[in-house]
Structures are given as structure tokens and as C-alpha cells.
User: Fold these one by one.
Assistant:
Number 1:
Amino acid sequence: ETGVTQTPRHLVMGMTNKKSLKCEQHLGHNAMYWYKQSAKKPLELMFVYSLEERVENNSVPSRFSPECPNSSHLFLHLHTLQPEDSALYLCASSQDMDRVVDEQYFGPGTRLTVT
Amino acid sequence: AQSVAQPEDQVNVAEGNPLTVKCTYSVSGNPYLFWYVQYPNRGLQFLLKYITGDNLVKGSYGFEAEFNKSQTSFHLKKPSALVSDSALYFCAVRAFNNAGNMLTFGGGTRLMVKP
């Protein structure tokens, strides 16, 4: 295990639902990330948090809303999603955002299906 | 801007044979290169990284990678493949002058090791 957990592992939701994805890291890291992994596409960085402050938002639609209440927890709130948002959502953490040598540690992902 | 190319969508190898998964990169400044592996229904796991020094980097599960600055490549290798090595492999790069720990991932290469 990598020390990064994600819940739920699978989620099916309708386009009018509101749901949240949760990520928790037990590594004492200061930076956390949300990625989207779609079939046949490279990993897309969605959001970056460093010490609980958002530092990167890669033009993600507002129907995705992140929250980082502390350095160990990261949420992704979902509302009025589209079928093309179906994907594997991966959470990752690293020791510090600015350390170029640090690898990122990934959680197992949440497989999201929007119907 | 930085980019990573993994020219092969899939690599097929017989068990016991050597394997190579190719990766080329483009960055301005010194590159920091990473390999990750993703098993089915799992998140990405860190394999190895090149930061500086010896061009041959050794990592987990018997994998190694060779940094070649003149060819801007960082190919992943293993002398003797195992069926359990079958997975999706991602190369990633981070440039020295990039603000924050933002990795750019390649599109991934599926490795299939046949008994």
C-alpha cells in the first residue's frame, strides 16, 4: 500500500446527483493532487493543494469542486456531471510541492460512472 | 512546455526475455524523470527516478532505466520479464524550473508478458 487511501472505490451517479470523493494520506506530506484518468488519454492534472491552499487549477469545469480541510485530507465534490466525466479519479500526495526530486504517491482511485 | 512520449501503446514479451519500454521527453532545463506502474484496478506505483548522477537507475521489482541526454530518452528495462510484470507503465517528467511539483505524464504503455 502507498499510504494514500480513497473512498469510495466505485461510484455510479446520475447527472443530477451530488456526491463527494474522499482522499486521505498517512504519509505526513504537504502537497496533494487530483488527477483524472480516462481511457486512451494521458493523466490529466486537475487540482493541486500545498499546505491546504490551492495552487493549481487546470481549467477544470466548475462542476468539480475541491476541498482541502487539512494537509491529510482532500475532497472532490461533484455536481451535475456529464457522461464524459466518467473516469478513474486518482488522488496523490508528495512531501512538498516545490521539491523537484520528490515522487508522488497515488491512491487506488475512484472509478466514477455518470449515467 | 514539457512533454513526454511513449511511442508504443503495447509491448509484448515472452516470460524470461528482456523487456524495454520506451520513453522520450522534451523539457527546457534539467529533466527529472520518473517511471510509474499501474496494475489493474490500482493507482500508480512509483518504480524509479532519475535526478542526477549515474545514467543507469535501478528501481523496484528488478526494473532499471537508462537516461540518455543526447537522445532525450529514459527507457525502462528489465533483464528477464515475469508474467506478473504485465501492467500499464507511465513515464513522467518534471523540469527543474517548473513551479511546483507538476509532473507531465506520457500516455502509457501496456506491457503484456506471456508465459
Number 2:
Amino acid sequence: QSVLTQPPSVSGAPGQRVTISCTGSSSNIGAGYDVHWYQQLPGTAPKLLIYGNSNRPSGVPDRFSGSKSGTSASLAITGLQADDEADYYCQSYDSSLSGWVFGGGTKLTVL
Amino acid sequence: EVQLVESGGGLVQPGGSLRLSCAASGFTVSSNYMSWVRQAPGKGLEWVSVIYSGGSTYYADSVKGRFTISRHNSENTLYLQMNSLRAEDTAVYYCARLLDAFDMWGQGTMVTVSS
């Protein structure tokens, strides 16, 4: 059971918008720690997609956006493309565990 | 080019030991927070350990007392010494640079613990 909770899967048609939620608690997201998002394409290493809740690293399209509120965060992907099919993970820091924590991951399927 | 390259994975028997290496290029390991993150087959990501630029080290409870993170400054390399390995340690091990987020990852090295 992951400390951060994500839906196991989401899907959408090309061009549509999808969101992935990440629910934490008062010892991680709710404590004010930043949330980061990673994209993991099949058979590859994770890649940083969103950092500091809502910031995109250089080279990440503005179709990807992040937000945070209270004990939750979300990743939105607009204009879905076939090569967006991947696993997406949220991540934060947990003060109770004194360590970095990840969500269980969400598999995005582009229909 | 800025990159991380892991090595040292393989098949080891339960109770055995293995040392993973992560060679960095394009930046200085000792000036950054560096971490190991693992991913069991078909599972999600799990943070394993971190070493701060000042040398402090921290571990996930699942590996505390068995794994040791270290670095070799002149070789610009990060290490993970893994002892008393268990079947549940089977995973791809990634090294990653930790800024606010894990902003750079290696390609990973597979560790299989099995008899």
C-alpha cells in the first residue's frame, strides 16, 4: 500500500483531456511538501515531468500541468497523444517516515 | 553530456551481497544530493536511500541496517552496498540526482535475489 494514492488506470481518446489524482495526508502533501510527477514509458527509466507542484522542466510540453490543494495533487494532460501512453507517478516527502514517497502509479491508456 | 550510468546488478542468492555503482558525468556527485530508487518487477517506485552533499545518509526502513550508500568523490561515482539480500529486494535499481525532485535518472540495473 503506497503512502500516496493514485488511481491504477485512466484512459482517454486522442485529443481529450485526462487527470490523474494523487492523495496524501497531513504528513506529506498536507504538510506543505512539494509534489512532483514522473512519466515512465515502457521499459525505460522514469523522467521528471512536473516539479514543485506545477513547474515543467525544459522540454516538457505545456499539455502537461500540475496542481496541488490541501492533501491532494493532480496531473492534467490535454490534447492526448498516442505516445503519452505510460505509467505516471506522483512523489513527495513524508515527515513521519522521514523519507521520500511515491504514489503507486497510474497507467494511462490512449484509446 | 549530463548522465548517470549504473552497473553491478546481477543474480545473487538470498543472504548474499552485491555492490551497485552509478557513474556520473556532466556534474559533480559530491555537490549534490544523490539517491537510489528501486522498482520491483511490475510494481511501482520505492525510494531506498539518499546521501546529502554534506555526507549524511538516510535509508528506507525496508533496507536500514542492510544497505549502505556511499560515494567516491575523485571517481564521481555513487555506490550502494547491499548485504543480507532477500527475495523482496529483487528490483531494478536506479540512481537519481535529488534536487527538489529526482531530476535525473540512470537507466537502471537489475538485481535478482534467488536461489
